[in-house]
Amino acid sequence: MSVALHSNVLPISSRVPFPSGRSFEVRRLRRNLQSLLLSHSHFQIVGRDRRVEVAVQAAGVNVEELVILKVATPNLGAMTIICVPSRLSQLPRVLSALLHIKREGKAEGRKMVIVPAAFVHRQPRLSSARAIEDASGFHVSRSNRLAVLEHLLERGQSTLMNCALAVDHPAPFACVLQMVAAGDLKMNLNKRLRPETRIEIARGDSK
User: Fold this and answer.
1) Where do the domains of the chain lie, and which CATH numbers do they carry?
2) What number of CA atoms fall less than 13 Å from residue 172's CA on the CB side?
3) Residues 6+ away with beta carbon under 8 Å from 196
4) Which of 28, 108, 155, 192 is the residue whose CA sits 20 to 30 A from 124?
């Protein structure tokens, strides 16, 4: 999965407050899912989907054991992500109930995606996403942004280290990762983040 972001994307959302009382497993799953979403600036976290939560509870599944988030993208519009912890994904009753809710939503024109916890926790993608998310709040000056883009325009692609060396910034690696979060650059999240990680200009292609 490469991060490829666009100039007309929705802004990165701030973290959505999480209801108290959930288990550590569910809180961790929620935290990691948000990290994946916030590392891609074309995802905007809208918040909870109370309509889906009510449907889940009515189906006999404890909604506090799931992570349910509504997100928006410029190309796909609004959708709801239902993230299922590993122990629940092995219960046919739970999966059957969620698939039924998904089919009902599709019939009403609403998009839903059921995501297993293993997909969210997968490494090294999660660690890379967390690093990009952490860097998203850094300020990158216009001159540093242009320096990185010019460096890449001359070479087509470069390493994270060489891109960092092209800028005058107190945290040069974070500077480059902020440009990934902002949609200027792309990298492969499925490979471990290293100084040798390949960086390219995001040209509007999808992941």
Assistant:
1) 24-121 (3.40.1350), 125-201 (1.10.10)
2) 13
3) 159, 160, 161
4) 155
